[in-house]
Design brief:
Order of helices and strands: HHEHEHHHHHHEEHEEHEHEH
Distance between the termini: 73 Å
Number of helices: 13
Helix content: 40-55%
Strand content: 5-15%
Structural class: alpha/beta
């Protein structure tokens, strides 16, 4: 074994160590260049979210709003959607252009895929399903299964997973067992949209894993809070439900009129509370467009209403974004 004595140390070793210490101090404590100092002060742009509400056939209003936001180059960093809002928002996040979405509503494709046969055809078939239940057929409750709509949504979106979307996205659903409003942020996009649009009684709820989900609008029809929880700093909410307007009292002598008005009142009350939490609330005038309207002209009418409402709101949107340091791109 060789013993190292003091005399055997190399005389340049202390100088080498001292040089390394000085180099470390220079590189860590002193700025290398002006660019380095500038990088440390860079501020991130506030994240802008679009919260698209439910409303069935009135979803064409969302398309009109998207058209204007695109024209004005308003950046969208997050999309949350309830029911038809989850469909329009999901397809948009998947890369489907607003012009293509517009064509789908103008051709009245959405409602025909959502409800493959009209209610007046489907309802007479219900007794046959009741008979089948007597022999052990036990599907989840609802008139329409929803599988056809999922295939249609998959075709439009390219059968994407939510994680593959170009914009962070959430489909808002209601947990059938707990009654809680939840959001789907990963997995099969088409299945998420099917669950978010599963209107109780009309469409069968959707089971994903050990959970059963139905239409998100049952609890949260305009998903502003979900957008906040996903990290949004600025939320633009779009409410496509009908306004409550003055009308003759004799209108309520019509069969079914009270049930429809009660639904309008309930939605107006809930949606107003949700929209108060948004930075901007856009509310197109969708008067006369039913939730399951199959009238072809309503597609273009809804798009036009969305365009008008978005343009009316644009000065306020730009003013508020400018105050946050965000200018249209």
């Amino acid at each position: 074994m060789k013993l190292i004595t003091m005399q055997s140390r190399k005389p340049w070793l202390p100088i080498f160590v001292l040089g390394n210490i000085l180099a470390f101090l220079v590189t860590t404590l002193l700025p290398i260049s002006p660019a380095t100092a500038a990088d440390s002060t860079v501020k991130h742009r506030p994240r802008i979210a679009l919260a698209l509400g439910g409303g069935g056939s009135r979803g064409s209003g969302h398309v009109g709003v998207l058209k204007v936001l695109e024209e004005e180059h308003i950046p969208i960093d997050i999309v949350t959607g309830t029911s038809i809002g989850s469909v329009v928002g999901g397809l948009y996040a998947a890369g489907v252009q607003s012009t293509e979405l517009s064509d789908l509503f103008e051709k009245d494709e959405f409602i025909h895929e959502f409800m493959p046969m009209p209610l007046y055809v489907r309802l007479p078939l219900e007794p046959f399903e009741l008979i089948a239940r007597l022999f052990g057929y036990k599907p989840y409750d609802g008139l329409y299964y929803g599988g056809k709509f999922k295939k249609y949504a998959d075709k439009l979106s390219g059968s994407k997973q939510i994680e593959q979307l170009r914009i962070p996205y959430a489909a808002v659903v209601t947990n059938v067992v707990t009654g809680q409003s939840e959001r789907l942020t990963q997995g099969d996009l088409g299945l998420a949209m099917q669950a978010s649009t599963a209107v109780p009684g009309l469409k069968r709820p959707v089971q994903i894993g050990d959970h059963l989900y139905c239409d998100g609008g049952t609890v949260c029809n305009v998903p502003v809070q979900h957008a906040r929880e996903l990290g949004a700093d600025f939320v633009i909410a779009v409410n496509i439900d009908e306004f409550l307007k003055d009308q003759p009292l004799d209108n309520f002598r019509v069969l079914g009129s009270m049930a429809r008005q009660a639904l309008r009142i309930e939605l107006a009350s809930q949606d107003g509370a949700f929209c108060e939490k948004a930075d901007i609330a856009i509310h197109p005038d969708m008067t006369g467009i039913g939730l399951i309207s199959r009238k072809k002209s309503n597609g273009q009418r809804g798009i036009d209403a969305g365009i008008k409402a978005a343009r009316d709101a644009m000065p306020e949107i730009k003013r508020k974004l400018s105050a946050l340091g965000v200018e249209a791109l």
